[in-house]
Predict the structure.
Amino acid sequence: MGRNLHILVVEDDRDVRESLTLFLELEGHTVTAAGGGHEALELLASPPSPHAILIDLNMPHMTGDEFRAAQLADERIAGIPLLVMSADVHAAERARVMGALAFLKKPMEAERLLAVLAKLGDHSSGSVK
C-alpha cells in the first residue's frame, strides 16, 4: 500500500464513523473524525490539513454538497481531495459534479476503499477511478 495518510472522516452515523476510523487506523492511517460538515470545517480551520476528506453525502444540517461548496470557497482547504461515500442511487453523479476524486458506494467494500487510498498515496493529483 501507499504511504500513511491523514484522513478526515465526515459521517453523521456514529457507528459508521467509529468503524471507519478504527479500520483506517488499523491500516496505518491517521484519522480525524467529524460528525458533520460544520464540525469538519472547524477542524480544517487549524493545521495540519488532511491528505483527503472522506465524506458522506446525505447528512443533516450540512450535506456533502454544501460542505464541498464551503470547502471550495476557502482557498486554504480547497485543494484537499474529496472522497464521497453514499448509498444514494444518484450519488455517483453528484460526486462527479462536485469534483470528487472518488465515489465509494455504501456499504463500502474494504478493498475498494484501500485501493482508492493507495492510489491517493501514490499520486499527488489526478482522478482515482
In short: Helices lie at 14-26, 37-44, 64-73, 91-98, 110-122. Residues 90 and 129 are 17 Å apart (CA to CA).
